[in-house]
Amino acid sequence: MSSVMSKPDVKPARPWFSAGPTAKRPGYDLASLPTNLLGRGIRAPEVVKRFADALQLTREVLRVPAEFQMLYTPGSQTGAIEAALWCLLGQRPVQVVAFENFGKQWQTDVQDRLKLDPEILSAPFGDLPDLSMVDPTKDVVFPWNGTTSGVRVPNADFISDDREGLVICDATSAAFSMPLDWSKLDVVAFSFQKALGGEAGIGVMCLSPRAVERLDTFTPDRAIPKVLKITDDSRPGGGGFDRALAKGVVINTFSVLTIEDWIDALCWARDAGGLDEMIRRTDANFAVLERWVERTPWIDFLATAPETRSTTSVCLKFIDPRVSGLDEAGRYAFVLRFKALLEGEGAAFDVESYRKAPAGLRLWCGATVETADVEAVTPWLDWAFATAVAEL
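RESULT FIELD:
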């Protein structure tokens, strides 16, 4: 590639490629959000109903089975997974599937904080562990899509139909963009700010009947912080799933404006064609980036196997020896320069890899991103590389 390259003529109309919070939906207008409930108490009947309505709309768009209970948690998807770990684990042995940063965080929680001595199924960034090692007699915690590694499980075939343990799935960058096999999952957690471009701070937890039964019959031998507590000690006999949470009641004070923003995103998704259209849009965006990677000699996917490549949080690595041959500090400095060039032109924002992942690029290709903008950004990626590598 020449060390001198002209700037492309066309920029993405919406140059937002962050993996969280992700791009707002096309046509988004903050001024269009209802404000009549702002300033109302979080326990006001009208507010509780609005929260309940949002849960029902979430169920409709995501196709959550009717038998699953749904609730909100503080702390986005992280809070939802933490609540599941603290309230559900301890009855059975535990496995944690850790192949990216968040899986490793769940490993730390289960291992160091809950002291449950889990079996760890691990793999380096870019790979999946041997999923045939998942034991149906044990509880298992895993990310469907590794937001920080660009690696996803290709399907849920590794989960037994006759499992005895619970399956806790971190689905935050898969929900609304990839098909989820609900029959294989017992806890599914995600956040507003990923696939549909909602605002941050609130997580959603979906509980299968098996998970609810665990909450109703098992009391962990540990104190549970209030913001993680999804059980109700006031119930007869004490403990058990707090069913009020499935009716729009919330654990602590949440932002009503954030809920209105989430409802706006859900209505857009529903009216655009629902889950099938969200997946189609995501796949179309990924296909554009995939074709660019295939024809570009200096970049490659971080995910080694094609069937495990994320279609949402697409993580890329530099394979040109002028960059890959740098030490770790040099590679990170190159990424920062690459990012600065794009942002200085207003061509793309937030395309750097996750801070704890290998130095490279990460572009969100979920449904709220327009395919035309993915097409428009690729010449700018070429320009940024040519410019930055010429400075080495």
